[in-house]
Amino acid sequence: MALKISDECINCDVCEPECPNTAISQGEEIYEISPDKCTECIGHYDEPQCQQVCPVDCIQLDPAIVESPDQLMQKFIRLMKV
């Protein structure tokens, strides 16, 4: 699954620089995660770095975008070729 930032986000700016895929950006009101770029840090780290640094625990799995670890690894490989 891709990750999603909930409306509990306080715009603290700590998650954006931690994303190795540059999947996090400032939205109209809160930060947003691009599901096309989010690999849950597979290929880079053992755990999603944005979740590790979020002080309000507002970054969760997006149930609308279900992806297996293999699919996330394929996305990582595709992103690294760009």
TrEMBL record:
It comes from the Bacteria. One of its GO terms (molecular function) is metal ion binding. Residues 1-29, 31-64 form the 4Fe-4S ferredoxin-type domain. PROSITE patterns: 4FE4S_FER_1 (PS00198), 4FE4S_FER_2 (PS51379). Keywords: 4Fe-4S, Electron transport, Iron, Iron-sulfur, Metal-binding, Repeat, Transport. Pfam families: Fer4_7. SUPFAM superfamilies: 4Fe-4S ferredoxins. GO terms for cellular component: cytoplasm. Signal peptide: none annotated. This is Ferredoxin. It comes from Candidatus Dactylopiibacterium carminicum.
